[in-house]
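Milestone 3.1: sequence recovery, worked example.
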């Protein structure tokens, strides 16, 4: 495998912990604390995926060591059964072809070690995001550099099939540098497990597919896309737990777009757009990740280069957002964020400052404290409570 140097900006995809859907039942690690797995960029000194124990009482992280060596494991997803880990290997060249890879591992919680099951080509370079469906029998990958998306069937033992569906996108957006071609950045399954949505930063759209969960087969929906404002660069997506709304984070305009979701027809409608970056900030910013708390009262969005986390309150009536505050991310270039299962802490993977920041959170007001704890790790990319 050939490791890659990322695309001008050092970007990638991320998502909130799978614990948001399934609660904290699978998070307890042997020896106490919640088990946290961290994917990294391995072009520097990191070797792969690292395991930590997280103390929800104190916000302390204790490293349990290297869970497994892996090439550029920049995004991780845990299967619904809590036993299988899906990994995006963000490569430009895999087995001599212009492709990244997708791999699966079984997790031994007692030792916090991962054992590889298998690995397959993602069929596109720069694989930056992966996801399971709710049954755990289907898996999906977004290829940033390749501008494509693929689905795979998952066996009972966690083994990935070759691709079941593959979609190569074409075209460009208005920004000749950042949007010269398609850039798939996120694969998100709808709350009812009937649709897959693919955020495409390069084309300013979210592609929408109907999902046959039994086979992992995808077919274009009607309408087949939702379109953002030109040059927005839709990057990340999170559904509201009630399934009526979704929240799209744009990378290039650093904003959150509130979307109404029509679950019957698989369609998105724009409701509101709010800006993350402070009005006084001068320079380029780039939205990276968005999460929703378990009670669906607050949204947190990370923005790079101004290096802040923005907190929004969610209206229970119409899903709209109200900005509450912005705080420092506790480092530089926040690539990914995750709420711990207790809801007391927000963890931030700060790529450029080589640290994981832990910010305390008031679950009643949603407010984050400016000063947090910091734990060193080279090029952290993804935080998953397993």
């Amino acid at each position: 495998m050939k490791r890659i140097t990322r695309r001008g900006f050092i970007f990638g995809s991320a998502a909130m912990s799978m614990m948001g859907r399934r609660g904290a039942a699978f998070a307890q690690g042997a020896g106490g604390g919640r088990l946290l797995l961290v994917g990294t960029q391995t072009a520097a000194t990191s070797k792969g995926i690292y395991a930590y124990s997280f103390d929800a009482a104190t916000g302390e992280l204790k490293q349990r060591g290297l869970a497994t060596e892996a090439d550029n494991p920049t995004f991780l997803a845990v299967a619904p059964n809590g036993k299988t880990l899906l990994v995006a290997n963000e490569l430009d060249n895999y087995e001599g072809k212009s492709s990244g890879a997708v791999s699966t591992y079984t997790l031994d919680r007692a030792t916090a070690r991962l054992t590889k099951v298998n690995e397959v080509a993602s069929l596109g370079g720069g694989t930056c995001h992966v996801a399971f469906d709710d049954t755990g029998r289907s898996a999906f990958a977004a290829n940033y550099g390749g501008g494509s998306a693929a689905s795979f069937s998952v066996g009972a033992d966690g083994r990935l099939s070759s691709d079941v569906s593959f979609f190569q996108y074409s075209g460009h957006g208005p920004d000749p540098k950042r949007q010269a071609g398609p850039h798939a950045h996120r694969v998100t399954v709808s709350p009812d497990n009937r649709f897959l949505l693919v955020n495409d930063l390069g084309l300013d759209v979210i592609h929408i597919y109907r999902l046959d969960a039994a086979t992992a087969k995808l077919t274009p929906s009607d309408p087949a896309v939702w379109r953002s404002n030109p040059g927005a660069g839709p990057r990340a997506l999170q559904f509201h737990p009630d399934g009526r709304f979704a929240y799209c984070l744009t990378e290039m305009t650093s904003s959150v777009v509130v979307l109404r979701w029509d679950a019957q027809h698989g369609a998105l409608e724009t409701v509101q757009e709010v800006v993350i970056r402070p009005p006084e900030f001068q320079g380029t910013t780039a939205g990276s990740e968005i999460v929703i708390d378990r009670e669906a009262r607050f949204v947190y969005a990370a923005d790079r280069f101004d290096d802040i986390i923005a907190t929004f309150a969610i209206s229970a009536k119409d899903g709209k957002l109200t900005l509450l505050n912005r705080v420092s991310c506790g480092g530089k270039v926040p690539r990914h964020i995750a709420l711990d299962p207790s809801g007391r802490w927000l963890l931030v993977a700060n790529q450029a400052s080589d640290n994981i920041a832990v910010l305390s959170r008031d679950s009643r007001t949603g407010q984050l404290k400016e000063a947090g704890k910091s734990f060193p790790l080279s090029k952290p990319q993804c935080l998953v409570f397993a």
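Confidence is low (pLDDT under 50) at residues 1-27. The helical segments are 19-22.
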